[in-house]
From TrEMBL:
Purpose of the protein: Catalyzes the condensation of isopentenyl diphosphate (IPP) with allylic pyrophosphates generating different type of terpenoids.
Assembly and binders: Homodimer.
Cofactor annotation comment: Binds 2 magnesium ions per subunit.
Alphabetized GO MF terms: ditrans,polycis-polyprenyl diphosphate synthase [(2E,6E)-farnesyl diphosphate specific] activity; magnesium ion binding; Z-farnesyl diphosphate synthase activity
PROSITE patterns in alphabetical order: UPP_SYNTHASE
Binding site for Mg(2+): D60, E253
Keywords: Magnesium, Metal-binding, Transferase
Residues the record marks as active site: D60, N109 (proton acceptor)
Pfam assignment, any one: Prenyltransf
Protein name: Isoprenyl transferase
GO biological process, one term: polyprenol biosynthetic process
EC annotation from Swiss-Prot or TrEMBL: 2.5.1.-
InterPro entries: UPP_synth-like, UPP_synth-like_CS, UPP_synth-like_sf
Length: 285
């Protein structure tokens, strides 16, 4: 009798386990279905909407995401973050956003963070970002923004090779990688380049001062020739610019997203575009 009861109890436990597994898989399917429906509705509402020509993104929260997901080494987040950029660029191309600038690492990041973490991030840039942008299937022309002299030789060479390989295949989509970047240094370097250009042309300081305009300085920024960003998205919940595109983002709309970069979903992206489309831009007025 005891054996029969034990067998029956085992059968009940197995049945409960199967029902729980079925229920769990059913809930996963339901969440996936609801997400897909919601994403399609968001996308449809953006048809004909005013969308940014130039989107800038601060890809923040890679390490915190890795800790949240239970990884022992938070540096794993850099790989997921680098791979996720490829997916997000696909969303941008789908929406017809032809200019994208992403903030990868600042000069301070390169100098102040642990050498092992910086080395890991640079490997991800080489193995994932530079490699994928170099593929013939990529529609993006790569531009480099920042002090390349603070990068490891291998990272600098990989990015330059990727930039050179994307010139011929320019399909009207431009990606600026801000790495070894500092917004104040960019402005200083732009003014220095302008002064050097004028000096080589034989113009005096008085001549330069007389003809100096904001547009002339902008021509010498890393993004010279491209439109200023219309929308800046920062992930991870931080509400600050961290020196990113100080000149170019003077009149940009800002959107702060509370998810970490590797967890930045398509619906988060579409919500940011919806928020932008609903705003009335004033450009300082």
């Amino acid at each position: 009798m005891g054996a029969v009861c034990a067998s029956g109890a085992s059968w009940v436990k197995e049945g409960v386990a199967r029902r729980a597994e079925w229920f769990g898989s059913g809930m996963t399917w339901l969440r996936t279905f609801v997400y897909a429906v919601y994403a399609r509705r968001l996308r449809k509402r953006l048809d004909g909407a005013n969308l940014p020509r130039h989107l800038a993104m601060v890809m923040d929260g890679n390490r915190r995401w890795a800790r949240q997901m239970g990884f022992e080494d938070p540096r794993v987040g850099h790989r997921y973050g680098a791979e996720h950029l490829d997916e997000v660029l696909g969303w941008c191309a789908e929406m017809g956003i032809r200019h994208v600038t992403v903030f990868v690492a600042s000069v301070d990041n390169m100098r102040k963070r642990d050498a092992g973490e910086v080395g890991n991030l640079m490997r991800m840039i080489e193995e994932v970002v530079a490699e994928r942008l170099s593929r013939p299937s990529s529609v993006w022309r790569l531009h480099l923004a920042g002090r390349l002299d603070v990068l490891p030789d291998s990272t600098r060479d990989a990015l330059k090779l990727a930039a050179d390989s994307t010139v011929a295949g320019d399909g009207g989509f431009h990606l600026n990688i801000a790495i070894g970047y500092d917004g104040r240094e960019e402005i200083v370097n732009a003014i220095r380049a302008l002064l050097d250009e004028e000096a080589q042309a034989g113009h005096s300081v008085a001549d330069v001062a007389q003809r100096l305009t904001a547009d002339r300085i902008a021509e010498h920024l890393y993004t010279g020739g491209q439109p200023d960003p219309d929308l800046v998205i920062r992930t991870s919940g931080e509400r600050r610019m961290s020196g990113f595109l100080l000149w170019q983002a003077a009149y940009s709309e800002l959107h702060f997203c509370d998810v970490y970069w590797p967890g930045f979903r398509r619906i988060d992206f579409l919500r940011a575009l919806r928020s932008y489309a609903a705003r009335s831009r004033r450009f300082g007025a």
